[in-house]
Amino acid sequence: MPCVIEETTGHVDKTHILSFQRPPRPDYQSPFLQRIQIVFGHRYFGYLGNAVAVANVLSVCVSITCVINCVFIFYYLLEMSLKILALGLKRYISYPSNIFDGLLTVVLMVLEVSTFAVYGFPHRGWRPEMLGLLSLWDMVRLANMLIVFRFLRIIPNIKFMSLVASTLLDLVKNIRSFAGILVVVFYAFAIVGMELFRGAITPTGSISGVNATNATLQCGTFEQLQYWPNNFDDFAASLVTLWDVMVVNNWQVFLDAYSRYSSPWSKLYFVSWWLISSVIWVNLFIALLLENFIHKWDRLCHRPSLSEVEYQMTMELMFRDVLEEPTEEELIEKLHQHPHMHLCR
Question: Could you list the residue ranges that cross the membrane (predicted)?
Fold first, then answer.
């Protein structure tokens, strides 16, 4: 039975390792192709592509001509072709960053060729911005702005940036249950608010009349700010009102208005919602974020977690006065008495 378990475990480990193994690079026999493979498969070639992407983004932000844009697109095509030659097609598409770069390059090339086909080769005085709100030229500029996402590839190579990015990604993955609790609380408070305050606040007169008498109202009140849509007459309006109170957007105005229109006891409802959503929930969210970050930081620095340290220190303090270390003579005597050890006296 143990042999079967060991064989199964070894097979699972090998399968797990092989599943994450990237395809091998092509084996070229020509020395020239081998040199090309070494040069253009190096990480410094990727750094050069990031530098070119910086220049492309700066040119788009400042000003760009069709000739400069063609130069950048030609470089991206050349980079993609050389990487496929050096890494092989299967290994090239095994990297998500290469897939993004390749798709972006194809989109840029298609847009540029379409621009030439529709407008012809640009000449002096050509104004593509006058040809519509979103012309092909504008689409090329928007696609060029996506080049900035190429810099996301450098995050795993920087220790602290990788730590922060992985913390945020794990938080997004594990926040579903946490956000689900907030949705349930939102729903419960919205239903209770509709039962308590439905129809409590109604606009006084028409909108034009309110605007005409707006100057006579006290500044900062519910009526002067025209917060009439923030009510509990329906479920959607209730969610908006609760959101405004949660982000503390003039929440004192809501407390004053509902205490005047309904009852002073309505403040208990809004204060309870503020404590649960804005205080407790936000602090729990920050605690979850810090806990995830500290856990990853300890793993990155090869430190034991805080719970393990506390447990070890507690056990040590519990038995420090009871346990006594044996002397050297006692250890040697025990070793001599061991049935499987034959020591020379």
Answer: 53-78, 99-119, 177-197, 268-290
In degrees and rounded to multiples of 5, residue 272 shows phi and psi of -65, -45
- In the DSSP assignment, the letter for residue 276 is I
Distance CA 202, CA 232 (A): 11
Q: CB-hemisphere CA count at 13 Å for 210?
A: 14
Please give the average per-residue pLDDT across 52-70, as a whole number. Answer: 75
Q: Are 72 and 36 in contact (CB under 8 A)?
A: no
Tokens representing 330?
């006692």
pLDDT tens digits, one per residue of 106-125 = 887 887 777 777 766 654 44
Residue with tokens 């009349």: 209
With contact defined as beta carbons under 8 Å apart, do 248 and 274 qualify? Answer: yes
Neighbours of 110 (CB within 10 A): 13
**Is CATH 1.10.287.70 what the domain over 158-345 is classified as, yes or no?**
yes
What is the pTM (predicted TM-score) of this model? 0.50
